[in-house]
Amino acid sequence: MTDTVTSHGATIVVEGVSKQYGDAFAVRAVDLTMAPGECVAMVGHNGAGKSSLIKLMLGLTTPTEGRIRVLGGDPASAAASHIRRQVGFLPESVAFHPSMTGRETLDFYAKLKGVPRTGNDALFERVGLEPAAVKRRVGTYSKGMRQRLALAQALLGGPKVLFLDEPTTGLDPALRQSFYEIVRDLRDAGTTVLLCSHALTELEGQADRVVVMSRGRKVADGSLATLRSLAQLPIRIRLTMPDGSVIETTCANDDKVAAVRRATCAMDCKGGVDVTDIEIVQPSLDDMYAHFLRREAAE
Ligand SMILES: Nc1ncnc2c1ncn2[C@@H]1O[C@H](COP(=O)(O)OP(=O)(O)OP(=O)(O)O)[C@@H](O)[C@H]1O
């Protein structure tokens, strides 16, 4: 255990945290723990409380109730500069000065963060910004180049905790792919990564855990497998016939073998038709997200 990890081995501990603005709750009684090397996706509608929770974990605001520990300390305390130096943040929209070059921009942020700029070339290489691009003014950058620069800014100082708010908005599929490759490398190297996104389908396969927020509350938290088993949503089975037609049936996950048997038997009885393909479609993250929101609304 290092001094940057709490006694539970977690890098982030959020306990019973609420944040009120006037009478309105932006965040309500949230508990959340994250471990080193864990990538968590936080999803929720506009206004669900995701950014408010990130601001609390960054120490930019303080909880109305509850306690937050990041890397073993209170991120909002005056003495937390050593914590903040180990935390990276990629905000939803980053506005760099258009007349500064990529290099000048990263040097500026390195100075703000109090980390040496000697590692900046390696950072540019890591995020895929070519040396020629680094010398250009940011005003001439494409959206993808700006986002790469924004990621380089978030990676300054080799953060142990990284918050990424809607990191892939506006990026083409190839860039998204390379972005998630970088995130995977960071996670494998032990960085705790929290990813906020509306692009739910894209998050499948990227995150170890999914946290669903709704109206300031955490309404679900678990791996996709755990959320699937909690939601108990039906799976879809698609059977392709020799003539190319598709028969679709739904059933509980535990019942899929019996359901295929029932469906093929029914066809046999009708004249012995072979099945050329079977596809089992698990509920998507979108389906589960909708389920947990419906359940929360009904409570
Ligand atoms: N500084 C503030 N003053 C007053 N209300 C606020 C403030 N910050 C957030 N809120 C309110 O708290 C709620 C949660 O907002 P928040 O920005 O955290 O949601 P979000 O999930 O990040 O949404 P989005 O996906 O649109 O970014 C909203 O109702 C918002 O209006």
UniProtKB/TrEMBL annotation:
Transmembrane segments: none annotated. GO terms for molecular function: ATP binding. Pfam families: ABC_tran. Gene3D superfamilies: P-loop containing nucleotide triphosphate hydrolases. The keyword rRNA-binding does not apply. PROSITE patterns: ABC_TRANSPORTER_1, ABC_TRANSPORTER_2. Keywords: ATP-binding, Nucleotide-binding, Transport. SUPFAM superfamilies: P-loop containing nucleoside triphosphate hydrolases. InterPro entries: AAA+_ATPase (IPR003593), ABC_transporter-like_ATP-bd (IPR003439), ABC_transporter-like_CS (IPR017871), ABC_Transporter_VariousFunc (IPR051782), P-loop_NTPase (IPR027417). Residues 12-240 form the ABC transporter domain. PANTHER family: ABC TRANSPORTER ATP-BINDING PROTEIN ALBC-RELATED. This is Cu-processing system ATP-binding protein. It comes from Azospirillum rugosum.
